Amino acid sequence: MRGLIEDDYVTDEGEFVINIGPQHPSTHGVLHLKVWLDGETVKKVQPHLGFIHRSIEKMSESLSYRNFIFATSRMDYLAAHINNEACALTVEKGLQLEVPDRAKYIRTILAELTRLQSHLLWWGCTGLDLGAVTPFFYAFREREYIMEIMEETCGARLTQNFMVPGGVMYDIHPNFQKRTKEVLIQIKSKFQEYDNIMTGNVIFENRTKGVGFLSKEDAISYGVTGPTARASGVSCDIRKLIPYSAYDQVQFDEILGTGGDCYARYMIRMHEMKQSVSIIEQLIDNIPEGEFQAKTKNVIKLPKGEFYQRVETPRGELGVFIVSDGAASPYRIKYRSPGFSNLSALPLMAKGGKIGDLVAIMSTIDLVIPDIDR
Amino acid sequence: MSASIVIFYILAAIILGGGILAVTAKKIFRSAIYLLFSLMGIAGLYFYLNYEFIAAVQIVVYIGGIVVLIIFSIFLTHASGKDMEKPKLMSVIVSAVAAVFACAIVISLINNYSFVATTNTAIEPTVKNIGRQMLSTTEHGFILPFEVVSMLLLAALIGSIVIALKPKTEA
Amino acid sequence: MFLKEYFGTIYKSIKSLLVGMKVTGYYFTHLDEIKTEEYPDNRATLKMFDRFRGEVVMPHDDNNEHRCTGCQACEIACPNGTIKIITKQEILEDGKKKKRIDAFVYHLDLCTMCNLCVVACPSDAIVMAQNFEHSVYDKKQLKKILNQPDSKLMQGVE
Amino acid sequence: MKILLTYSFSSLATYIHNLLAELITNSLLLQVTEMVILGVSLIAFLVVLCFFLGYMERKVAAFMEIRLGPNRVGPKGSMQIVADTLKLLLKEGLTPDSADKFLFNLAPVIMVIGSMMVIAPIAFAKDFQLYDINIGVLYVSAVSSLGVIGILMAGWSSNNKYSLLGAMRSGAQIVSYELSVGLSLISIVVLSGSLSLGDIVRSQENGWWIIKGHIPVIISFVIFIIASTAEINRAPFDMAEAEQELTGGFHTEYAGMKFAMFLLSEYINLFVVSAVAATLFLGGWMPFHIGGLDGFNHIMDFIPSSVWFFSKTFLIIFIIMQFRWTFPRLRVDQLLTLEWKYLLPISMVNVILVTVMAIMGWHF
C-alpha cells in the first residue's frame, strides 16, 4: 500500500497533479480525487475514499434487528427511506414474514417520493456543477413539497426511519393522499420548465453530449447500476427484475438509454422522474385498507443463515446482506452500495476529458459520498 | 519646476527602473512583469506627448500582445518559479560590450544632432493623418516599411507555430 | 449544406438560450412566486406537523404525575445510548417496596430522533415534541432530565 | 497638461476650478489638487457604484431564483453589501508562504487600476466626460486588455495549481475574445467615422445606431455583449474563476482586502462594458430621437441626459446579470470554439457588411 501511494506522486515531464477535494465545491462531500493533468486534459483520476467512513456495517452488528435500520438512513441520506426499506425487507425475508398489503403500498409510494426528491436534488446539483445556479432553487422548490409530505407522515424530512420489520411505523397521515396528489400535479407542471432552462439549453447539451462515455460492457464489468448503467443500455432495474413491495402491482417502464454519455444519464433520470410520478399516481388512490404493520415478536431473532435483498435506490442497486447466527443482532452485515461501484467507473469515464468534463461526469453519476464510504 | 517636467521624470524613472529590474530580476516571470512596467511607461510617455494613437497602439501591441505572449511562453516552459541560472561569463562580456556600444551610438547621435525647430507646420497626429501617412505611396509615405513589418510579423507567426509544434515522439 | 447547418446551429442555440432566459425573466417579473420563508419572523405562525420529531419529552399532568414506570424498554431500544434511566426503591403506603424512576436522563446531543424509544414504551410515557430550536451555548445543557422534580407515577400505570 | 484639462465637466467643474484657482496661485499645486479631487471623487463614485451593482446582482439573482435576497441589514437589505465590504476590509489579508509576495500583492492593484482607467473616456451625460480622447474606442479596447495581466500575475504568483490553471484559461480567453470585441466596435467606428466616444454619441442625434444600422449593427451588438461578457470573465464565461472546477481560479488564495479589490474590478469592468455598449449602440446620453420628428425629439430632451445614460447602461448590466443566473458554464475548449468558429467569422463578415452599408449610405 505504501509503495502504491509513493508511486502516485511520480509524474512524467509535463504532468500536473492536482488534488480535487476533500474540500471542493463539486465533489458533493469529502471525496478526494487525485487528477493527473496534461494541460486541461485529464490523464488519470484516482479516487481516494474513507474521509467519512463511520463503520455503519460494524456498528449494526451490535444493534438489534429493529434498531440497525436507523443507521442506514445515514448512508445514502437522499434515499434514506429506500435504504430503510432494504433492511426491513431483508429482515422480513429472514423471518419469512408476510407484510400487509397496505404497508407494501405505503412503502412503495414513499419510496417513489424519495426517488423523486432525490432526482430533483440531483437535477439542481447538476445545474450547479455545470455553473448554472438557478435550477438548484427551482428543484428545491418542488423538493420542498415532497419533504413536507415526508415530514407530515414520517415525522422527519431526510432521515425518516419510518420502516420497521413487518411494515411501517405508523399509518399514513389523513392528509397524505390529498397532499401527494396536489404535489404530483405541481411537479408535472414544472417538467417543461426544467426542460426549458436546462435540458434544451445549448451550453448544457454541449457540456454533456458525448462526454464521459461508458460502454455497456464496461458498465457491466465495473458493476455499475442504476441510471448510470441504464444510460449505457444495461437493463438493471431491480423494481422490474425482482419486484419487491408493491412494484408488481404497477405499470411502469424501465428507461434504457443507448448513449452512455452524460446526456444519456441525465435524460434517464429526467424520464425516471416522470415514471415515478406515474407509479405514485397508480398507487395513491388504491391503498388497500387493513393493517399497516405485521405482528412481530418483541425481540426479533433471525434464524441461522444468510439473507440478501436488493432494492433500487435512486443511484442504483442497494444490496443488504445479513449473516445471522440466530442471535438478536446480526453476525455480519454488508451493504452493497450503488455509489461505490458507480464511482469505480469514474476514472474510466473521465480519462481524456477536460476538468469541466470530470465535474459533469461526477454530477451525472450522482455521487453521495456517505453512501460510498458508509 | 512645472508639473509637466515632474511627470516626465516620473515616467522616465518608471521606464528606466523597469528596464533595469527586468534585466536583473532573478525570476523570469518577474522579468516579464518589470518589462511590462517599462512598456507602460513608454505608453505613458506617448500620452504625455499627446500621441494618443501611438500610445494606445503601444498598449495593444506590447502590453496586450507581446507581454502576454511572453508570459504564456514562460508558463509553458515549466520553470517559471525557479531562479534563473547565472549566465556564462562569455555571454556577460559580449552583452556588456554590445550595450556599451549601443549606448555610445545613441549618445553620439544625440550630441551630433542639431535640434533645429522646423519651419514646416507639424501634421496633427490624428488617426486620419496617421492612416493616410501609413498607407501613402508618396515620398514620405510609409507603405513600404508597413508592408515589411507585416511580413516580419507573419514570419514571426509561422516561426512560433513551428517552434510550438510538438516534436514527433520517437518510437 | 455546410452553411445551412452552420446557421441552423446558431439559430437553435440562440433560441434555446432565449427560452432559458424567458424562465428566469418570468420569475424576475413575478415576485409573488418567491418561496422564501423568513424564519425567525414567522415563528408565531410556524406550526410543525404533529408527527414531527423534535425531541423526546415526558408529558406530566396537572398533578405533576408522569406515566414512566422505569421499565427501561426505551433505554434498550435506543440505538445510541441516548437514554439513561436511574431508578430508586420507593416505599409505598402499604409498605411494599417499588421501583420508581429517580431521573430519566436524556442526552439530546446523542439523539437521532429515530422514534424507536417512543415505539418501545409500553406505557406511552414519552412522546416526541415538535420543538426544533435546540441550540444552546453549552453542550451540557443538552443533557436533560425529563421527569420533573417531585413528580410521581400516575395512578393505574404499572 | 492637456490630458487633465480636456475633461469638460459642466458648470460644477468650472466652478470648482475657478474657486481653486483663486485660492491656489501655484499652477503646479493647482493641477495636483485638481488631480487629487478628480481621483478621489472618481474612486468614491466607483465604490458607491460597486456597492449598488453588488446589491443589484444579489437582488436580481434572488428574484430569478425565487428567493428574497438580502433583507436584514438596512432597508430591504441595502446595507448588506456595505457590511460585507467592511468585513472583507477588516479580514486579515493572507499571503501564502510560498507565494511571490510582491506580485501577489501587486496583482489586485493592477486589476483595479486597469479597470478604472477605462472609465476615463466615457461620457456620463451631456458635457460630462472625464477625458474626451480622440481615439476613445481604441483606448477602451487597449486599456481593458490590462486586466489579463493582473489575472496572469495573480494566478502565477499564488503558487497554487488551481490559480495557475485559472490564469492560463483566462489568458487564452481574453486574448481571443478581444478580437470579436474589437471587430464589433469597429463596425460602429465605420458608421460614425470617428474613434472619439464623444463624436460617436453626437453622431446618434437622429437615432441610435442599433436602430439606424439595421441588422448588421444588431448582430455586432449581440456579438459585443457576448464577447465582452467573456472578456470580463463573467458567467457563463467565468473560466478563470470556475468555482465548481477550480474552486476560485486565479483568486483562490486571496482573502480580505485584496479579494475585495478583485470584486471591485469585476464590477467596474461590468459597468464599463455596459457603458461602452450603451454609448456605441444605444446612443450613450443621447435621448431617444427619431430623425425628422422634431416635436417628439423635443419631448425626449426633457429627460436628463444622465438618466438616459444610466438607464441604458443598467439595462445592459441587467442582461449580462441574467446571463449569469440562467446559463451553465461553457467548457474551456467550447469557449474557444465559440469564439473562433462562430463569433469571429460572423463579426468579420459583419464588418464588411457594415462597411458596404456605410459606403452606400444605406443607414438612416
Question: Could you outline the blueprint of secondary structure elements for this entry?
Answer:
The complex is a heterotetramer of chains A (about 375), B (about 170), C (about 160) and D (about 375).
Chain A: H1 2-8, E1 16-20, E2 32-38, E3 41-48, H2 56-60, H3 68-72, H4 80-95, H5 101-129, H6 134-154, E4 163-164, E5 167-168, H7 176-199, H8 202-208, H9 216-221, H10 226-230, H11 238-241, H12 262-284, E6 305-313, E7 316-324, E8 332-336, H13 338-344, H14 346-350, H15 355-364, H16 369-373
Antiparallel strand pairs in A: 1-2, 2-3, 4-5, 6-7, 7-8
Helix pairs in contact in A: 4-5, 5-6, 5-12, 5-15, 6-7, 7-12
Chain B: H1 3-24, H2 28-48, H3 52-76, H4 89-112, H5 127-135, H6 143-164
Helix pairs in contact in B: 1-2, 2-3
Chain C: H1 2-29, E1 55-57, E2 65-66, H2 73-77, E3 83-91, E4 97-107, H3 116-120, E5 127-129, E6 143-145, E7 152-153
Parallel strand pairs in C: 2-7
Antiparallel strand pairs in C: 1-5, 3-4, 4-6
Strand order of the largest sheet of chain D: 1-2
Let me know the largest β-sheet of chain C: 3 strands, antiparallel
Number of domains of chain D: 2
The chain pair forming the largest interface, with residue counts per chain, is: B-D, 31 and 35 residues
Assembly of the depicted chains: heterotetramer
Helix content of chain C: 10-25%
User: Can you give the mean pLDDT of chain C?
Assistant: 83
The geometry of chain C reads as elongated
Q: Give the terminus-to-terminus CA distance of chain D.
A: 39 Å
H/I helix tally of chain C = 3
Strand content of chain D: under 5%
The largest sheet of chain C has its strands arranged as: 3-4-6
Low-confidence stretches of chain C: none
Cα end-to-end separation of chain C: 89 Å
Sheet of most strands of chain D: 2 strands, antiparallel
Radius of gyration of chain D, rounded?
21 Å
CATH class of the largest domain in chain C: Alpha Beta
Query: Helix amount of chain D, in percent?
Result: 55-70%
Low-confidence stretches of chain D: 1-9
